[in-house]
Amino acid sequence: MTKYPEYKYHLAALFTVTVWGATFVSTKVLIANSLTPAEIFLLRFATAYVCIWPFAARRMWAANLRDELLLAAAGLSGGSLYFLTENIALEYAPASNVSLIVCTAPVWTAVAMSLFYRGERMSRRQLAGSALAFAGMVLVVLNGHFVLNLSPRGDMLALSAALLWMVYSLVIKRIGGRYPAIFITRKVFFYGLLTILPFFAFRPFAVEWEVLARPVVWGNLLFLGVIASMLCYVLWNAVMHRLGTVRTTNYIYFNPLVTILVAALCIGERITLAALAGAALILYGMWRAERA
User: Mind telling me which residue stretches traverse the membrane in this protein (predicted)?
Assistant: First the structure.
């Protein structure tokens, strides 16, 4: 096996986190147009499910009951519950707190993988690189504002989101080698949609057609559904199977960097020297963790 194919997977992971970093700005635009986080998630995953079906239906795979339960757990942990806890956390805690805590997911994933899978244990070089990338991520998230206001409810929700992504990573690790990535992704969308529906019994879906007809709304929904969900979830699940869960999850450290860059370009947010220093640390840490 030559190294070139593996580099393609690294590029796929980098592309995915780049898109996911931009989704925070896209979601912020939709919220400004009166959509709730739950409504955004439903429309996003419904669009992704409709778009992925023609590709996944070319060959129908069947999962046994145990695997079907694992796929349901993936849809719950990496879909409905993850997005709800992350977005509801923003109602109680500052965005810097939420971003910082959610981006600890690679740390929890590495700990869990080292406990359950000997082959996924990190070397000293990888630990050092990951620590540098984490430090850089902290600088990027704070973006020059070194004050964190404690908000127990919001912080615990953000921590729950990070732990849910860890669970999702463990489930995909368990099942990833048995089914194609596109089949797993379709199931994640299906169970994500199924498990979000009870939420609307408490907060009914109330998006008006006039709002959906706005170009800025349907344009961002298409971006979230087709690119950020359908395409990126397929890529991410395939990359985790090829590179390993820990190495792939470390790319999440790039998320805040992309977010502040997109926010600076699209909505005029300021980038500080601290954020630039953090970006350099992320790049160096990832290079150190991955170099031969």
Answer: 12-32, 38-57, 69-85, 97-117, 129-150, 156-176, 188-205, 217-236, 257-287
Q: Name the residue ranges covered by the structural domains of the chain.
A: 3-132+146-256
Distance CA 188, CA 185 (A): 5
The CA distance from 166 to 222, in Å, is 27
DSSP letters of 212-237?
HTSHHHHHHHHIIIIIIIIIHHHHHH
Q: Which residues contact 219 (CB under 8 A, 6 or more apart)?
A: none
Please name which of 58, 85, 109, 74 lies closest in space to residue 185, comparing C-alpha atoms.
74
What are the C-alpha distances in Å from 2 to residues 177, 287, 289?
Answer: 21, 19, 20
Q: Which residue has the tokens 């089914």?
A: 179
- Which pair of tokens denotes residue 156? 């615990």
Q: Return d(Cα 8, Cα 210) in angstroms, integer.
A: 42
Q: From CA 86, how far away is CA 82, in angstroms rounded?
A: 6
Divide the 292 residues of the chain into consecutive groups of 10 and give the mean pLDDT of each group.
67 90 81 89 95 74 82 94 87 69 81 74 70 72 57 81 92 86 92 94 90 94 95 93 84 76 67 71 68 53
Dihedral angle over CA of 25, 30, 32, 38, nearest 10: -110
Determine contact, residues 268/42, Cβ cutoff 8 Å: no
Burial 99-132 (b: 16+ CB within 10 A, else e): bbbbbbbbbbbbebbeeeeeebebeeebeebbeb
**pLDDT for res 142:** 64
